[in-house]
Amino acid sequence: MDRHIFFSFFFFFLISILKFADAGSIGVNYGRVADNLPPAVKVVQLLKSQRLERVKVFDSDPAVLRALSGSGVKVTVDLPNELLFAAAKRQAFANSWVEKNVVAYFPATQIEAIAVGNEVFVDPHNTTKFLMLAMKNVHQALVKYNLHSAIKVSSPIALSALQNSYPSSAGSFRPEFVGTVFKPMFDFLRQTGSHLMVNVYPFFAYESNADVIPLDYALFRENPGVVDPGNGLRYFNLFDAQIDAVFAAMSALKYEDIKLVVSETGWPSKGDENERGASLDNAAAYNGNLVRRILTGGGTPLRPKADLTVYLFALFNEDDKFGPTSERNYGLFYPDEKKVYDIPFTVEGLKNYHDHRSPATGGQRPTAPVNGGGGVSKSTSGNTWCVANAEVGKEKLQNALDYACGEGGADCHTIQPGATCYNPNTLEAHASYAFNSYYQKKARAGGSCYFGGAAYVVTQPPKYGSCEFPTGY
């Protein structure tokens, strides 16, 4: 080979390696709210066969951590919300938790981060005030075992932690949390060299605003883009716009130097009639195009050099989850380990990847169902309410309440201590109020008063003390 040609080829090869070395990283959330999943050992084999090098779990199950030992897969474990109080109040508890759930497995199991809680700001149990103390105590436990340089401590926040997210340049955090949580958290992340974890779901924004958000814009497909009037930047996908809203909110507080990890994002492959956009084609397009967007490098319009680590949600469809049909259909794989749809997870896989849009929709906005008011099915038999079914038992009722007030987005402020609907202080009463809030916000759509059998529809106004149940939002 001619020397000039050889060096040209070598230079191009080196640049290509450097480009992909600087690109982002793809991981996956391994949720297990299901009764039909394969054993952890087989799951790890699946991760390795798909060359997924990062996994995030929602607890610290010994079987999972043992199965990941020696796999080379980097792991983020979770200290659940229900343990925040104990971890905040007692350093000894944090030390013990870290010893049992981290030290016992590291370094054979490559634990790289601890998520302290998950979306704590929307937790119905009012655990926000314990978050920072818990994070600091967990970090101090890592210092005790000399693991603080290898393992980062953070806490995933939902996009609802923002007061404003549109336009991106106006991004700001909810003011009630700025002084008490966000500034102390960012100081902690800066001091420990950690990153902010954010859960971002363009699907929710599209589902609620399908008449104004183009589907192509939500799915990373070719589109004219949207210009942010505040900073003049043009956005070609909703994901980047949402991420930059978080970056703008951080910049407003003078924390531009803190990195960001997308701890959850995904798109459901199936949904109820009113869940616009939930389909197999759209899920494949969103996740496949997202992988391409992350692995080929480049940050966001506001942070061009901010290559992101992104955790897809989720590895499997989870049949025991509460809420609408979409909640049970975010999986990349069925429980039998077959792919729900075929997308790559590596740079090599991207070479032969094409986003095959359905000829039926052509990537256009879906039309509203004929029985819908704006795409949602409303009751035609007068006012109805959603109440708790106490017969399912306290555990199932509590799990459903946690979902409604958390991921479900129900208005649960009125059942907090001292609020108008706190009394009677019973699980059934609180769950009924939360379920009804969710049901009404979903415009009483079919399937929105189910919660895994923990709720049912009534035609008479519920009575729990003096609390009034709304009939619409």
TrEMBL record:
GO terms assigned for molecular function: glucan endo-1,3-beta-D-glucosidase activity
GO cellular component: plasma membrane; plasmodesma; side of membrane
Keyword Cell membrane: yes
PROSITE patterns with a match to the protein in the record: GLYCOSYL_HYDROL_F17
Record key words, sorted: Cell membrane, Disulfide bond, Glycoprotein, Glycosidase, GPI-anchor, Hydrolase, Lipoprotein, Membrane, Plant defense, Signal
Name the record gives this protein: glucan endo-1,3-beta-D-glucosidase
Membrane topology field: Lipid-anchor; GPI-anchor
Enzyme class: hydrolase
GO biological process: carbohydrate metabolic process; defense response
UniProt cross-references to SUPFAM superfamilies, sorted A to Z: (Trans)glycosidases (SSF51445)
E.C. no: 3.2.1.39
X8 domain sequence ranges: 384-469
Region (Disordered): 355-380
Record-linked SMART domains: X8 (SM00768)
Residues in coiled coil: none
One Pfam family named in its UniProt record: X8
UniProt xrefs under PANTHER family: GLUCAN ENDO-1,3-BETA-GLUCOSIDASE BG1-RELATED-RELATED
Catalytic activity: Hydrolysis of (1->3)-beta-D-glucosidic linkages in (1->3)-beta-D-glucans
Compartments, as annotated in UniProt: Cell membrane
Family, similarity comment: Belongs to the glycosyl hydrolase 17 family.
Chief place of localization: membrane
UniProt entry tagged with the keyword ATP-binding: no
Superkingdom of source: Eukaryota
Secretion signal span: 1-23
